[in-house]
What does this fold into?
Amino acid sequence: MASHYAEDRRAYEQPNMTEAQMRSRIGELAPFHHAIDLPFGLNTYDESLRGHDRQSLGRIDSMSKHVWPRLLEQFGGTLQGKRVLDVACNCGGFSFLAAETGADEVVGFDSEDKYIEQAKFIQAARQENRIRFEIDQLENVSAESYGRFDVSFFFGILYHLEDPIGGLRRIASLTTDTIVVDTHLMRLPYIHHFLKMPLWGMSVVAPVEGKDTTTGLWRKARHCQFKPNLQAVEQSLRFLGFDDVEYLVPTAGGLEDRYYKRTRGAFIARRRPPSATRSEPN
It folds into this structure.
């Protein structure tokens, strides 16, 4: 994960593990879903798995170029002073990016204990103390157990949920300002130019097998998915109380191809402050 915030790299310039120890632990915990920089010039990416693994190697880079500039723009160029929630954080790539860009506190959770073990190893390697990682299920997350957050990340999870609106509602209830959603999108050939109504496509996907996968850690049975179109994401976020919803048109170069094809999309949704809410006439 390339960082443009050099001052924050000081947090892991003095590693508490030797290079040999770090290399060994990377091998024990591989494969990782995110490619994340570590001390000694190491990275969680395993070159030997190229071509047949499920490592999401371009995701951090794509998000840092596509989503982060617009997100930071909304907060004056930094997440300083913000409390951030990373839903289904996997090995924590976006949690670390939030910390690098100034977040005061980040909480990441995932239901798969292997992901959290990976995230905590990366955290120890980088000596990052602004992040807390938890093993938890989305349906258990509440304001009582986690508090409330200025910003929530809902990355790569919406289309995995059998109750996508219910899951999104739960996280929306904890989010006081901004939620960022990144998801697969349903895009019907040709028809999408004319069809502007919200739609969800349903599919039943097979289990993922193999030791060189990351998704296979949790998707061990057939799974029902609901993939929204662009309008469905926008209307769902407005329905849940986010007045300003922006689909991020992909303009940066070097993103994953599916962003340009609009089969993957990112959205930033923000609650309008009370002072900006138009009062009803008497």
The longest strand covers residues 175-184. The chain has nine helices and nine strands. The radius of gyration is 19 Å. The beta strands are 83-87, 105-110, 131-135, 149-155, 175-184, 200-205, 223-228, 244-247, 264-270.
